[in-house]
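Bit of a strange request maybe. I'm writing a small parser for structure token strings and I need a real example to test against, not something I typed by hand. Could someone generate the tokens for this chain?
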Amino acid sequence: MGVWVVHLLHCMVSYHQHVPIHHVPCAALIPPPPKKRHTHTHTKKHTQKQGHAFEGRLYAETPHNDFLPATGTVARWSLPPPTSTFEFTTGPGTNQIRVDSGVQQGDQVGVYYDPMIAKVLVTGPDRPTALQNLCAALSEMMVAGLPTNQDFMLRVAQHPAFQAGGVNTSFIVQHKEELMHTPVPSGVTVALAWLVGHAVALKKYTVCW
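Reply from user aminoacidic:
Good idea to test on real output. This should exercise your parser:
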């Protein structure tokens, strides 16, 4: 009997020496409550206007046909050069332009992706100046080979009601006749578009402008 008691005590001591659990105070097992985050309340005195900005999204689409997406080969592709930096600052000489696009001349615009092919962002110290910069940027764009909404955006930006700030969700419907005007291209324009498209298709000529 004494031998069994000694053996039992030896087993208990060995168990407590090898058990992988250590005594830890209960307070250490309870994580501290999260610190209360300081919430900032933005008021008018914290918000300051710094100029104005516009964004024009160039789509391969036909505005006169209910903005139906279009496909084709980009026969001519020239966008206004962006400025080196793009910051919303005011003052003289702070008119900024930014161009985001992944399209190049000769690319094929198909039906498997979104028809937006470029974004043009401009800023200015005030709304009229920024809008003037947008009109200038849209006028400098040269895109041929497929229908786009370039002329439509330019007509919107140049519309007296838009320039006056009278914009709402019914703007296109209210001014549909002026905005959807599609001038007939001249013979020279058609000939130039055909020549450029033919050169890109053959991939043997370099078109210099």
